[in-house]
Amino acid sequence: MNRLRILALAIAVTAPSADARQQVLYEIGGAQPEDQLGRVVSGAGDVNADGFSDFVLGGHLSDRGGRNAGLAEVYSGINGSILYTYTGSTGEGLGYVVSDVGDMDHDGHDDFALSSPYKNVIVGGIGGGLRTHAGMVDVRSGRDGSRIRSFAGSVSGMVLGRSMSGAGDTNNDGYPDIVFGSNTGVAWIHSGRDGIVLTTLTGIPGSSGPGLAVSSAGDFNGDGFDDVTGGDFAYQGFDGLIQVFSGLDGSELSRVVGSWP
């Protein structure tokens, strides 16, 4: 059984103080063997609107729902109790990435997202086709845990949701957006208002694309639109590459290339 310790950190505004102490608020362990809960962790915002920030944990190799079905749980910040539990189906890897996304449906409760990158997606109803390991991203309501919307991979092997993050308000419409990537290396910013694609992000020549790792960057260039980052750890023989993209139009704002020793 793995355990996760949630710490409160006393941080001085000026120089660090010798009196600063770490206090363990909660210690959380998977309820079943091989849950591997806590492989990924994220703040969830205030999902139950009680004035305290909550958090979400993922364990994509949990076997509760079948081999490597995956697991995600949302916990209360005020007392550490479980607010929501989600269990995947065999092989789909629910909880590979978990993230806060802000109050996407404007109901006063912060919402959160869970990815299942190895999920098989059925298309066309009964008798339709099957996209193997197409992947899926679910946005869940903080108010009641229900699905607000979902995004499914369009082809087999896409592994949609291998990276994912709240994106901030990239189009400045008052709704927080979401960004996620896939094994194709492409990343997409989707509208929090209606779920449509706002921007498609692609890499530079020689890179695998920004979809391997994505994150919000805040308003990087100060134009009033939140921006995002994308990364390719394997660029130029694992030197690595980070790009910052404009939320306004998806153009590259900045680029950093690492240096492998």
Structure write-up:
By secondary structure, this protein is mostly beta strands. The protein folds into 2 domains: 27-124 and 137-157, no CATH class; 162-190 and 198-261, no CATH class. Helix content is 2%, strand content 42%. The protein has 1 helix and 20 strands. The longest helix has 4 residues, at 235-238.
H/E topology pattern: EEEEEEEEEEEEEEEEEEHEE
Order of strands, widest sheet = 3-4-5-6
The secondary-structure class comes to mainly beta
Beta-strand content: 35-45%
Report the major sheet: 4 strands, antiparallel
Number of strands: 20
Rg, Å, rounded: 19 Å
In a nutshell, what does this entry contain?
This protein has 261 residues and is an all-beta fold. It has one helix at 235-238; strands spanning 3-9, 22-29, 40-45, 54-59, 71-75, 82-87, 98-102, 111-116, 121-123, 129-131, 136-140, 147-152, 163-168, 177-181, 187-190, 197-201, 213-218, 227-232, 241-245, 252-257. The protein has 2 domains: 27-124 and 137-157, no CATH class; 162-190 and 198-261, no CATH class.
